Amino acid sequence: MEQMKAVRIITADSKTSAELRDEPLPSPGRHEVLIKMRAVSLNYRDTALLRGEYPLPTKKDVVPVSDGAGEVVAAGKNVTRVKKGDRVTVSCFANWTGGPFTPDYHSNSVGFSIDGMLAEYVLFYEDAIVPIPDYMTYAEAASLPCAAVTAWTALNKIEPLQPGQTVLVQGTGGVSLFALQFAKIFGARVLAITSSDEKAAKLKELGAEAVVNYSTCPDWDREILALTDGKGVDKVLDIAGEKTIAKSAASTKITGVVVVVGFASGFGGGLPPVDILVRTLTVTGSTIGPRIDFEAMLTAMQKHEIRPVIDRVYPFAEYREAYRRLETGQHVGKIVIEVTH
Question: Which ranges form a coiled coil (predicted)?
């Protein structure tokens, strides 16, 4: 039987590790598609899974990582959406095509409740498949499913982003940089916070109007208010959770929107209800997005030929180094693992 290599998250003696295994090559059923993976990219939640800190139930010994791109090498008998040779990626919730999120979709979370992308070949039901634009490399397309779709849907939470509105993004991870790029498409003004002057320069290069270094200016919410003449921003994408949520709220205008998209600094935070009340804020979460939002985002990206920002590309054999790079927090953009050539 033909073999392939796949990484699995193994928990033994209360320790979690990512182990490379030899496994049988799967073959597609009637509505399934077999993809030869070319590249995958990591998200913060992948490191949380490896640390044993992911907050939702996961499959035992799961193949990790939700984000990847590759080539269709075989399609089942009744597959109509794609064909052999197509360049594709996969939606993060394999059965969420459109409409609001329901709890059922958690049972098809790629790389968490079902096997993900960190393998030489992957098998998915055709409804999860999303074709990628011709102008993108596999590495670029691999960076999209979680971070880019999260940014796209978060910017349009509660009501669509409007030209002239102001958005606050945080840091230089994938979601923040995609949000910056997308907000510029919408004609919005983008402000940012980050931890170093070097990262600030990259954010300005991508179109941020002003950047506050929170390492040297811990009261960054006051700076954001000053940059908006005391009014605050229309929307803020809160990445870190515990350490940023209160100041995110303080940075937002009366009737503004705080969209929580991450938990990088922890699950606490203590946002006082009075802050929400006095500023009449809407505080909401964003759970990536359905396939139709992914496809709409790709249409916009293709029209403007937006290219994802990639921090570093690692060979498959160095997948552990890729995880370590993400843990350092020094990255600017997406960390990619090249699975096959």
Answer: none
pLDDT for the residue 207: 94
Beta strands in 126-249 (DSSP E): 129-131, 166-170, 189-194, 210-213, 233-238
Residue 67 and residue 138 in contact, taking contact as beta carbons nearer than 8 Å: no
Domain boundaries, the chain: 3-145+289-338, 158-285
**CATH classification code of 3-145+289-338:** 3.90.180.10
Residue corresponding to tokens 């990219």: 41
Taking Cα atoms as reference points, which of 44, 42, 40, 49 lies closest to residue 16?
Answer: 49
Residue 234 scores a pLDDT above 90: yes
User: 89 φ, ψ to 5°?
Assistant: -130, -170
What's this model's pTM, rounded to 2 decimal places? 0.93
* CATH code 3.40.50.720 for 158-285: yes
pLDDT in tens, 121-172: 999 999 999 999 999 999 999 999 999 999 999 999 889 999 999 999 998 8
Beta bridge partners of 253: none
